[in-house]
Amino acid sequence: MERLLADEAATIAWGKLLGEVASQGLVIALYGRLGAGKTSFVKGLAKGLGIEEDLQSPTFTLVCEYEEGRVPLYHIDLYRLGEQANLEIAMFDDYFYREGICAIEWAELLERYLPDDRLIVQLRDEQACRVMTVKATGPLSQSIYDRWLES
Questions:
Q1: Please, which residues have CB within 8 angstroms of residue 131's CB and are 6 or more apart in sequence?
Q2: Extents of the domains making up the chain
Q3: pLDDT of residue 31
Q4: Using one digit for the tens of pLDDT, what is the confidence trace for 17-47?
Q5: Considering the chain, what is the average pLDDT of its residues?
Q6: CA of 74: how far to CAs of 48, 101, 106, in Å?
Q7: pLDDT value for 98
Q8: Burial (CB count within 10 angstroms: exposed 0-12, middle 13-18, buried 19+), residue 103
Q9: How far apart are CA 24 and CA 26, in angstroms?
Q10: Do 71 and 22 touch, CB atoms closer than 8 A?
């Protein structure tokens, strides 16, 4: 699927729709340049899960855990680790298999360690809008993806 997103509010809205249908075990791999909207998308995801807390990018803490929603959310941001992220896989691996949803910004830095079944969200800027491309890679992510598009 490819969608044109007019602004940050649209990015948040699509994330919120996903959060409303997402279920535990979902891993979301987020790709895009700095400022492409990855954190905005996760903010919407959190809202859709019923998380009231103001979500911040975990660039310096690496992981933020939000337990108060319908399903726990584990928000990982690998930007600060850069190419060294793969050396820290033991720190993140557990989050991929918890009973929650794991959203990973800069997922390309752990590409070979990510679960095979994941939702890939690519955000990029094009002229006057943002473009979101989404792909499901397994049965769980495909089921959630289908529900997301129906909503």
A1: 2, 3, 4, 5, 123, 124, 125
A2: 2-150
A3: 97
A4: 999 999 999 999 999 998 899 999 999 999 9
A5: 89
A6: 14, 6, 14
A7: 83
A8: buried
A9: 6
A10: yes
Whole-structure pTM value: 0.92
- Calpha distance 146→151 (Å, rounded): 9
Q: How confident is the model at residue 127 (pLDDT cuts 50, 70, 90)?
A: confident
- Give the integer Cα–Cα distance in Å for 62 and 92: 9
Question: What's the burial of 11, exposed, middle or buried (CB within 10 Å: 0-12/13-18/19+)?
Answer: buried
Cα distance between residue 8 and residue 65, in whole Å: 23
Q: Which helix (H) or strand (E) holds 118?
A: none
3 state SS of 61: coil
Residue 94 pLDDT:
78
Is residue 89 within 8 Å of residue 110, measured between CB atoms? yes
Helices vs. strands in the chain: H and E counts, helices first? 4, 7
**CATH superfamily to which 2-150 belongs:** P-loop containing nucleotide triphosphate hydrolases (3.40.50.300)
